[in-house]
Fold:
Amino acid sequence: MNVQVTHFQTLVTIRRERFLPQNGNVLVRKGQRVSADEILAVCENPPRYVWLDYARGLGLPAKKADELLQVKAGQNVDEKDILAGPFGWAKRVVRSPQKGQVVLAGEGQLLLKVETPGMELKAGFEATVVDLIAGRGVILETCAALLQGIWGNGKAANGVLMNPYHAAEQELTVEHLTMDLQEAILVGGWVSNPQTLKSAVELAVRGLILGGIEAQLLDLAKEMPYPILVLDGFGPIPMNSLAYRILSENERKFISVNAWEWERIKGIRPEAIIVIPEEENAEASREIVELSVGQTVRVCRSPYTARIGRLERINPGKTILGNGLSVNAGEVILDDGEKVITPLENLEVIL
Amino acid sequence: MSLSLVKSESLLAIDVGTVNTRVSLFDVVDARYRYLGSGIAPTTINAPFNDIREGINQAIENLQTITGRILLGDDAQIIIPEQVDGSGVDLVAATVSASTPLNIIVAGLLEDVSVESAVRLANSIPSVIQKKFGLNDHLSAEERLNSIVQLRPDLILVAGGTDQGAESSVLKMLETIGLASFLLPDDQRPLILFMGNTKLHEKIKQIPVIGQTIRFAPNIRPALDTEQMQPARVELMDAFRTIQQGKLPGFSNLIEWTKGATIPASFGWERVIRLLSKVYDSHKGVLGADIGVSGICLAAGFGGETQVAAFPQYGLGNPNQHQFDADFIDDIQKWLMFDFSVPEIKNLIQTRRIYPASLPLTEAELDFEYAYSTVALQHSIQQFLQSLHSITHIGESECLPAVEPIIISGSVLTNSSHLARSAMTILNGLQPTRITTLILDQHHLVKVLGAAAAVNPVLAIQAMDFGTLLNLASVIAPVGRAKAGTVILKAKINYEDGREQKLDVRYGQFICLPLPIGQSMQMQLQPLHKFDIGMGGEGVGGKVRLNGSALGVIIDARGRPLRLPQDREKRRELHKRWMLALEKR
Structure:
């Protein structure tokens, strides 16, 4: 049975594809070392169109107005350029409302394409460009500590990692947000109070890495200007022991938090990366592995949510759980030595 | 059914679901088609595979292990046809519910006529309706054009104009849609399906920018008071295939293996329900419900006419704001036996969204799964009922019309050893009326049999007859209102062993009479106080023979629609009493 892998690794070789949503220009070259904020490629966003009725503007029938058309399809125009006219004693004209390009013109009507601000594709972490995908993007590679999350608020940032209260099993509250944490990326157990998220904005925090967050705060979390990366679950869920140890060991180091939405189809996952310079022979990261006995696993459902353990046994056939469900199950020894039976579907392999 | 209709054809049915891919093998045994077994593997639509073939092949390998029959060749292709050595299969049919819902823009003229019908058609497959255009939406052509360019739909459904009806407003709408489509990059152009005034087809083809992306279907509203869905469904199915070939890696292989017999899972349900509605009692309909991670699918058939609707908003694999609505969560709380606060429910919903394949380990979380399914079924059926009157021809009602049987599929109900909880979820969710039978699709075969029906309808019918479906319970649910405790139904029961039992059923009661599979009973029923049990009208009774089932006969006299006490403790007390009635049968 193939299962999802989640990385909480101190050293791993990470390869990530960075793609534009449509064709554009790639700005970097193969072999180039790029910083987290480096713009790798740019493209246009979908344009906006303005539909102008110049016949009505001139007060003329379409055929007559066409004779006074000053532009043709494909022509670029600036704001206030004359599109049609002049006509009559008042020298009536129709001007372009914005800078753009004429797409179609005739029969008294004109369609103007107006460019919208373009899109920039950033690296997201310090890495080497190992390959280029013409017009669409690049493949980046680096050696790093990697922590993968289960939810992100769609934002990304870099900064110095700080662990304000040194406890994975405590809620991050407003009281923990002191002035010395300004512009840092903070580690916390979980957040259940909206005021904590809002106060972090006032403190100009550059990001939060949490074990858990109350699901009812997710909409607010998406509005925050800084990235919020959730590693373990929803509710008052402490951060898992492996992730907390890695983050604690790397306090005051530079960390990149890419708290993107988890898009399974594209293989995009929210994650935090601490680049380890000039390391070689680090194992390559994997996304899927075959579930087998002896692996380190994390349980994703109550009552063992976010608990790390070792898969001791895969039960043959179906197991009837205490609640009556008939499932494929396994025996896991949790990090405190407790032995539990859980459905295999509730396990992720931790590397 | 005549045995001579049975061709010696084996069939592999593939269902590519959001979480799992199932392959099921059918072949002729003792001159009848029978289900031989299934193989299951996780669906591989996501990275790093990004190709549904991997999951299909893994599921087939599992099936090979179970049945001992070789189905895959060395080239990892399905062996078609069946070989002399017994390897391979003659036919392959498939349903697909994996992949993200199709993004659809719906356009029409009148909001409550053509636009409504087009929305109904769009809802028959998992879809997100991004925007609706109509005559009275106050949108300018520029706004419509920019909507299409920004939203980039997969499909635009255009209805409007009865035959002999409106022309110029339809053509104007299509000119804008065609232009917007033309302005998009080649690989992002939506398919346009026109299903309005049939007289306009030639004029539409002459619109210069409409291009190659337009397709035509017969008018879904040929007259103001007539809705004709079936031909448009066929075209929609074709559009679905075309779009998925571009979006879903591996889908083209599925089309090749099945020789085109690959359909959306919802249409698989629709086809089976259509077949059954022709076979069963013509005075009643047939209902099918599929509860899955990708949403709920409902299909109903009355005398061969069908309605089908997908409700992806209730699938925990399709996160959406609806699942966090206060009313929706409030409804879930009404059905919970355990204490869950609103934040706890939201946390659980969010966990299920992130881990759609995960399973409840505790009693409390299993309770949540049942409560969620109950409410999702309730909300879906309420919306579905609004579209049913076009095929039942009995006007809109807040209660389900008489249907027989009700077939239910979904892991939440079939994985459980608590059949009583499954039955309770169905009864509380769908709230069937009058006399019906609940049938559990325990091997998740109904939808694929729908796909199989296109290539071998005899197989589809016979495979359902023989052990693939579980007869869960017979249900008698009188419709009417009375004071609690009033006798509303008198029943005289004659068992096969000669025993006789008389029963006075009071309003509010929930009774379960054991009747094991293989036995039957005859009931003489007399409804009182104008209650309707579907035997010819209010207060009309009669005799009915009921066959044995896993749970027996349930007499559900709780009233329709079901009304629960406001007080939480009273509500829980009732739930416990009802469950006890089912479990102590």
